[in-house]
Automatic annotation (TrEMBL):
It comes from the Bacteria. This is Uncharacterized protein.
Protein backbone atom coordinates (compact mmCIF):
# COMPACT_ATOMS: atom_id res chain seq x y z
CA UNK A 1 0.00 0.00 0.00
CA UNK A 2 2.84 2.38 0.85
CA UNK A 3 4.55 1.91 -2.55
CA UNK A 4 1.60 2.84 -4.80
CA UNK A 5 0.61 5.72 -2.52
CA UNK A 6 4.13 7.15 -2.70
CA UNK A 7 4.03 6.87 -6.50
CA UNK A 8 0.68 8.69 -6.65
CA UNK A 9 2.03 11.40 -4.35
CA UNK A 10 5.19 11.74 -6.46
CA UNK A 11 3.11 12.07 -9.64
CA UNK A 12 0.85 14.69 -8.04
CA UNK A 13 3.97 16.58 -6.96
CA UNK A 14 5.38 16.40 -10.52
CA UNK A 15 2.14 17.84 -11.88
CA UNK A 16 2.20 20.59 -9.24
CA UNK A 17 5.80 21.48 -10.13
CA UNK A 18 4.86 21.47 -13.82
CA UNK A 19 1.99 23.88 -13.15
CA UNK A 20 4.32 26.06 -11.06
CA UNK A 21 6.89 26.22 -13.86
CA UNK A 22 4.14 27.11 -16.37
CA UNK A 23 2.52 29.80 -14.25
CA UNK A 24 5.77 30.83 -12.60
CA UNK A 25 5.58 33.97 -10.50
CA UNK A 26 1.76 34.06 -10.47
CA UNK A 27 1.56 31.10 -8.07
CA UNK A 28 4.23 32.61 -5.82
CA UNK A 29 2.35 35.93 -5.76
CA UNK A 30 -0.95 34.18 -5.02
CA UNK A 31 0.62 32.13 -2.22
CA UNK A 32 2.21 35.25 -0.73
CA UNK A 33 -1.08 37.12 -1.07
CA UNK A 34 -2.97 34.35 0.73
CA UNK A 35 -0.42 34.27 3.53
CA UNK A 36 -0.60 38.05 3.89
CA UNK A 37 -4.42 38.00 3.90
CA UNK A 38 -4.43 35.32 6.60
CA UNK A 39 -1.96 37.28 8.73
CA UNK A 40 -3.57 40.68 8.12
CA UNK A 41 -7.20 39.52 8.42
CA UNK A 42 -7.07 39.81 12.22
CA UNK A 43 -5.12 43.08 12.10
CA UNK A 44 -7.38 44.35 9.32
CA UNK A 45 -10.48 43.71 11.44
CA UNK A 46 -8.95 45.65 14.34
CA UNK A 47 -8.13 48.55 12.00
CA UNK A 48 -11.67 48.47 10.53
CA UNK A 49 -13.17 48.35 14.01
CA UNK A 50 -11.02 51.33 15.02
CA UNK A 51 -12.04 53.22 11.88
CA UNK A 52 -15.70 52.37 12.51
CA UNK A 53 -15.43 53.63 16.10
CA UNK A 54 -13.80 56.81 14.79
CA UNK A 55 -16.67 57.13 12.30
CA UNK A 56 -14.50 56.65 9.19
CA UNK A 57 -16.35 53.72 7.61
Amino acid sequence: MIGPMMEVHAEARRQALLLESERGRRIVEVERGQRRSVRSSIGGRIVRLGAWIAGEH
